[in-house]
Design a protein that fits this description.
With about 220 residues, the protein is mainly alpha-helical. About 85% of the residues lie in helices and about 0% in strands. The N and C termini lie far apart (about 50 Å).
Length: about 220
Amino acid sequence: MAEHTVKAFDEDITRLRGLIAEMGGLAEVALQEALDALVRGDEELGAKIVARDKKIDALEMEVDKLAVRVIALRAPMADDLREVIAALKIAGVVERIGDYSKNIAKRVGDIEDRKRFEPLTLLPAMGELAAEMVHDVLTAYAARDPELAREVIAADAKVDAFYDSIFRYLVSHMVENPATTSSAAQLLFIARNIERIGDHATNVAEMVHFAATGVYPPDHDD
């Protein structure tokens, strides 16, 4: 009976990992495509990204139900409980990453006179950094790699620096070109969404580190 219970628990954990990997893959694609749609002004692609976000939401609900069932039926302890709780929290954060990508996609058609905005060249580079963080943190989760998780945390400073630069540029641009305020504000909102994706990837990295080692990484703001 004990062996059967252990096998069933292992199968549940494998399923949880698989669901999160699927969620993560969809969130990665959504971010990459949202940035592509933004640069090209492709509203049709933007609409597809928005529609596909429901799949990420459905997967998160599946993770929630499975995690609660595992805790209720298996009563995991110590390392096993950390694993389940981490999966539950990570799924919520990945769902938010999908939401931020959806928010970017929604604003693709709101940028007028696109050639006047330097951030349209900077935002994809910033987004690429955030996308790499998301990819790496999901890899760290799958491999239980605390070292890679710490690298993801360190990378967030680069995304923040991009955001600060874009913020300063856009605020200055709005002051000097009041007619472009609406579009500049949309770009500022998009930059903020990308910055938040980096923050969320960092949050996942901290959870991965905790699940793998039992301790959270040192404060990366130090």
